[in-house]
Amino acid sequence: MSISELELIIYGAGGLGREIASMAESGCKAGRDLPRWRVIGFVDDTPGMEGQIVHGIPCLGSLETVAAARQGQETFCHVAIGNNEARKDAAARIEGYGWQPASVVHHSAYLSWEVDLGAGSFIGPHTTISPSVKIGKYVLINTRASIGHHVELGEFSQVSLGASILGHAKLERGAMVGAHAVVISNVTVGAWSTVGVCTPALRNVKAGSTISLPLAQVLFQRNVLPDADSPS
Ligand SMILES: CC(C)(COP(=O)(O)OP(=O)(O)OC[C@H]1O[C@@H](n2cnc3c(N)ncnc32)[C@H](O)[C@@H]1OP(=O)(O)O)[C@@H](O)C(=O)NCCC(=O)NCCS
């Protein structure tokens, strides 16, 4: 192992875990001014996962098993669980075993030097994070999201792919902003609330509520499809 790398365990061998593992392979940073991670394995509580190879990486077993095996060893772990509430519960469990929450920052993300990044957070590829932004612990900021200046992202909150959070907006703890949604300046998205996919949050969103654009309507229906004669 090179001296500039730290070993990393990823908690969750599902879709997000694979994405983060694959990003780590292509050169994720541990965080500004920190070494790179080297993923040594997944932890996953699903029965039967122990010993499986997921995305070329071994699944070491359940958290309980792996924590017992690594007792006394310094362990960095990234919780790769997309559901904010489940991520909160998993975070409490890893910290209960004395593991350290590890942030993962993709090398293509742009972060101002003036960003306060909480431990255990993920910053995906091609994300832009402006100056004076505060990011709490275990925040998930997905691919191509844009975070404006003076934004606050509370712990366990999430900004999905392509979403924009404009200057001085705030996401309270556990808030979820869906893919390609926009939260405009000075708006607060309340704790554990959801802004639906492609939805603009133009006013404050009350804690625990879900807002969304209406479902798209069918405009017309073709009677004959171009490949109607082709065998299916
Ligand atoms: C708005 C949203 C949160 C609703 O999801 P949900 O809470 O799982 O709700 P469901 O899809 O189960 O729908 C619940 C009900 O609301 C209705 N509903 C859902 N979205 C609606 C909409 N946009 N307009 C009108 N009704 C809607 C459903 O038809 C359903 O009605 P029913 O109970 O009568 O059948 C979801 O559509 C969304 O936008 N999620 C964000 C996804 C995302 O960006 N993920 C990021 C991954 S990177």
What's this entry about, in short?
13% of the residues lie in helices and 27% in strands. The protein is built from three helices and 24 strands.
Overall description:
This protein is an alpha/beta fold. Helix content is 13%, strand content 27%. The protein has helices spanning 15-25, 63-69, 84-96, and strands at 5-11, 36-43, 53-54, 57-58, 76-79, 100-101, 104-105, 110-111, 115-117, 122-123, 128-129, 133-135, 140-141, 146-147, 152-153, 158-159, 164-165, 170-171, 176-177, 182-183, 188-189, 194-195, 200-201, 210-211. The protein is globular and about 60 Å long. The N and C termini lie far apart (52 Å). The model has no long low-confidence stretch (mean pLDDT 93). The structure holds coenzyme A (COA). Coenzyme A binds next to loops.
List keywords for this structure.
about 230 residues; alpha/beta; binds coenzyme A
Task: Outline the secondary-structure elements.
Layout: E1 5-11, H1 15-25, E2 36-43, E3 53-54, E4 57-58, H2 63-69, E5 76-79, H3 84-96, E6 100-101, E7 104-105, E8 110-111, E9 115-117, E10 122-123, E11 128-129, E12 133-135, E13 140-141, E14 146-147, E15 152-153, E16 158-159, E17 164-165, E18 170-171, E19 176-177, E20 182-183, E21 188-189, E22 194-195, E23 200-201, E24 210-211
Parallel strand pairs: 1-2, 1-5, 5-6, 7-10, 8-11, 9-12, 10-13, 11-14, 12-15, 13-16, 14-17, 15-18, 16-19, 17-20, 18-21, 19-22, 20-23, 22-24
Antiparallel strand pairs: 3-4
